[in-house]
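Need tokens for this chain, all 625 residues.
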Amino acid sequence: MFLARLKPLYLALLLSSACQLQAQLPLSLSVDLRDAPRKLLHATEIVPVQDGPLTLAFPEWIRNEHEPAPLTQQVGLFIRARDGSGVVGQPLFWKRDPFDPYLYHLTIPNGVRSIEVRFDFITADKNGDAHGSSDANLAVLDWNTVVLYPYSGPDTRVADLTVTPTVTLPNGWHTATSLKTVAGVMEPTASSIVNFQPISLEQLVDSPMIAGRYFREVALAPEVSPRHYLDIVADQPEDLEVPQARIDELSQAIRQAGLLFRSHHYDDYRFLITLSNNISQAAIDHLQSLDNRRSANFFRNEKGQKLYANYTIHDFLHSWNGKYRRPEGLATPNFQTPVNTNGMWVYEGLTDYLSTVMTTRIGNATKEDFLDVLASKAAYYDRRPGMQWRDLDDVDTMAYPLWSSEDSSYDNWRLNGFDFYSEGNLIWLDVDVTIRDKSNGKKSLNDFVALFHGLGGDTGPKVVPYSFHDIVACLNQIVPNDWEGFLTERLHALSKAPLQGIAGAGYRLVYKEGADKDFQYSLAMSIGADGVISDVIMDGIAYQAGFGPGMKILAVDGQPFTRPTLRQAIDAAKTTTTPVDFKVDNTGEISDLHLDYHGGQRHPVLERVPNTPDRIAEILQPMSK
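Here are the structure tokens for all 625 residues:
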């Protein structure tokens, strides 16, 4: 009986040992991009194996993505045995795990020491449109979409699994990535085959590659070590032209980041930018690069720069905050372990704050721009009743489900997967102001991030996890305070906007007369140019008058709906006591609604409080040595 009980345990230990041995041996990965213009990537792996059961995993939880990996895009999976000389032999039967579709189970025959794994990945979007990550002239390669790896359970460590990658490019294409080629540091190349040095699977997945027919590389802040590059692929050669002002701003961001964090945690850093109107746009952070996919005229469009340049800085700063220092719940040992997103108020909130400050420090925005952005964030939370029942900690916990919701109906009541960006921003402004006040201006958040994110000084690429208590301890090193109580109160606060930092900085939120672009600050609902209502603030005046998301406004005061017509009606109502009349269509039902509003158009503004220190002016000062 005792031996019978030991047998399952013995077999489990034997299987675990075999899987650990497999994980220690390098696997080779070859990716063929020659069909990328047709939305297909071809992957071939040679995986060392041992006799017996084997599980292969398709990476599911990528720590910087907003949803699980697109498993349905993986197709054409074939696995074959290889003999000792590398000759491909018999096909091996695989079976998908019935409870976890990201896992494949198979049995390795006696004497087989490696297997060949082949499959394709479809680069089109999951919704089936023509966009995705590649087109006729360029492609973005996310390595997690083209790899299966030996998986022995939750203790599997992808940092211990070595991969030797090779990529085959279409003729005439160039490529850039933070990976190193066998010849050394990655250099732009038009060679059809690129061989990379062995690297851990963890770092490989964190090192995207861009490739394309039209390519340009620009050295940034050349006096700074380690080196930084702007690498661009585009659909048209003219889109590679970048105004010198944009290059100067990125170089200045690199200098300011070095002064802020007083450290670097990468061998070199690459701003990987894909410019195309034919692929899906995205902004993704990595430790040694960023992956920004933007419209073709991104660098030349001044309006676009105002909207999105901050995103580029945001993802650059993630190299320190989010990639090097990472919330412990996001520092999982492998890509099958679900992540705990409780630290997003730091991962994204602090980065949102720092990037907004940095964008101003480098001259891409003015103090007035900064105040406008801050006023919008403050007003957003001033009119967000979902905060009455869902605290920031719960928004963090619900990040993935909230990210996946694309419905804006009653968004103010539900909250969404981006609330921890802006609410976190306001909390870190409060932290910054509090440090400055308690130290009489001698310390600031700059000191915290230098100590916290500069831990260990200059290092190579690595992950250093942290806990909530690590944050509290580091803040107390900067200036003693009840930081645990301070942060806990803000993470669990209900029914009020986090405006303490704005008040402490010497400002207050007010609403002044002026254009209300979507009417949320005047009518308490968001109305599109077509008259369709996307959101109605819970218990606001529009809600109380009977309006709801999805309704379409047909007429205002007897006139066909247009935004100018609605603005005229709002302005006219300021001098009357007559409600504004609306004719609306609710899924085919036409009705008349009346809105008794006479406050005119309004927009949020931050107003200086007399006789108080202007902490915002201090915060926005560029750093110097």
